[in-house]
Write a structure and sequence with these properties.
Layout (H helix, E strand, L loop, with lengths): L1 E2 L4 E3 L5 E3 L8 H4 L6 H20 L3 E7 L2 H4 L15 H11 L9 H9 L15 H15 L12 E7 L6 E2 L3 E7 L5 E6 L1 H8 L13 E6 L4 E9 L10 H6 L2 E8 L5 H7 L3 E7 L13 H15 L8
């Protein structure tokens, strides 16, 4: 077995960790100033501004950092991590705790540390993403941050499983598979809308096309919510526009839930929805880049679809 490139570190007992990639993940833990004071300051200012804008619209806001697996399972890494607590999951909450501004960050590290005590794996060994047990813990912590009850035990729903090649296992030759599990939907959720990007992916069986993730938007209605409120989530693959990760767990809790796959927020979109709660979520690996602009969802989707069709002209009409 060999790995393609140097993006993956194999630690103890077959645990795989993302260390490379475009964001050089390992540098968070091995260089003292990779996530430096200026980036921390810019992130804190951005979160405070988002909080102010959400409050002006009558909504409560919070941000979820989805930690790298290294941040949660350093004991399985099997290598030196001299600046472990310089990573965003630790350093940004520490900075916010000393600031005079509002608390916007969900205590994800604390929630996952509590879940670890139950000895259920919180990440798949050959993937960068959460198990349902981790999703449940983070969803509960997010609701606590927002001051709302969390009544759905996501991790206890009926289990479905399959042997799959996941995102880290797929970087090896031959690929390494793992038994992946999911929690089946409760039946309370009905998808009420999906934007052109989502319907295009579904029509052409392109749900796993990485270039078509950002801009995906859906909404769900819950016929038996715990909280009679409207939620909008801007997130990434730890949230997902489908219903098996963080967005799905939260949607099980609220009457109406909307998701946009984006690290940037569309404030006109938010204002039109008039939500009670606004959540942003971003994988820790991406936090070395501070979003400097907001997204205009409709025009972004139009550009993304046109670009994809143009680059695949043999398969799709370009009109």
């Amino acid at each position: 077995m060999s790995v393609s490139g140097a993006d993956v570190h194999v630690g103890q007992d077959g645990w795989m960790f993302l260390v490379g990639g475009a964001n050089d993940v390992i540098r968070y833990y091995t260089e003292p100033n990779y996530f430096d004071n200026e980036r921390q300051r810019l992130w804190l200012a951005l979160l405070q501004e988002r909080n102010r804008r959400a409050a002006a619209l009558g909504a409560r806001y919070c941000h979820v950092i989805a930690p790298e697996k290294i941040s949660v399972y350093p004991e399985h890494f099997g290598g030196r991590l001299p600046f472990f607590e310089a990573a965003p999951s630790f350093s940004l909450p520490a900075l916010e705790a000393t600031s005079r501004g509002a608390r916007t960050l969900v205590d994800v590290i604390g929630a996952l540390a509590g879940a670890k005590a139950h000895r259920s794996p919180l990440y798949f060994r050959t993937d960068t993403h959460w198990t349902p047990e981790a999703v449940d813990a983070v969803a509960a912590a997010t609701c606590a941050q927002l001051g709302t009850p969390y009544g759905d035990n996501f991790a206890m729903r009926p289990r479905g499983e399959a042997s799959l090649v996941l995102d880290l296992g797929g970087k090896f030759v031959p690929p390494v598979s793992e038994t992946w599990h999911i929690r089946r939907p409760s039946g309370r959720l009905v998808r009420t809308s999906a934007n052109r990007l989502v319907t295009f992916k579904e029509t052409h069986q392109l749900e796993h096309e990485g270039g078509l993730h950002v801009g995906s938007a859906v909404s769900f209605l819950n016929n038996s919510p715990v909280v009679d409120a409207r939620l909008v989530v801007f997130g990434d693959s730890f949230s997902e526009y489908r219903d098996h990760l963080l967005f799905g767990a939260l949607a099980e809790n609220f009457r109406e839930s909307h998701f946009v796959w984006s690290s940037q927020l569309d404030w006109a979109y938010i204002a039109a929805l008039k939500p009670d709660f606004v959540i942003s979520e971003l994988a820790e690996r991406f936090m070395n880049i501070v979003p400097s602009t907001d997204i205009v969802l409709e025009s972004f989707v139009e550009e993304r679809l046109n670009a994809f069709k143009a680059s695949n002209a043999r398969s799709f009409e370009t009109k």
